[in-house]
Please model this.
Amino acid sequence: MKILPLFLCILLNSCVTGRIATKTGVEEIHFGNGGGFTGEVKEYTLTSESKLLENEKESKKIDSKITFEVFNSAKELKDYQYNKPDNMYSFIEIKTKEKTNRIVWSYGSTDIDEKVIELYSKLILTTK
Model:
């Protein structure tokens, strides 16, 4: 009897994961920051399979509900245009089947849409 709930949980989780890209239209999100004295870039990727990659190597698995929430937020910004890097910058790259949209802003920027900062904050939380 204990096997049935476990099986249902795995089945439901895999269905949610498989539908994230279908429901949101977002296939994956690249994000990170760079610049400064060294020019080093720290880059992460969150996939629709709820995998978090750090510099193209799998880092950890993210809860599919969190991934869905993040991808749903990214869907709203897939056409948002903003490209104002400075010495230190952050970025979000939203990949859909049709295109890739890269949003880049400098540290402390005040004229970027608040939704971008909120999405970036959610993404950074997945790395902790």
The chain has one domain: 3-126. Residues 6-17 have pLDDT under 50 and may be disordered. The longest helix spans residues 3-24. The beta strands are 26-35, 41-47, 51-54, 57-61, 83-84, 88-96, 100-106.
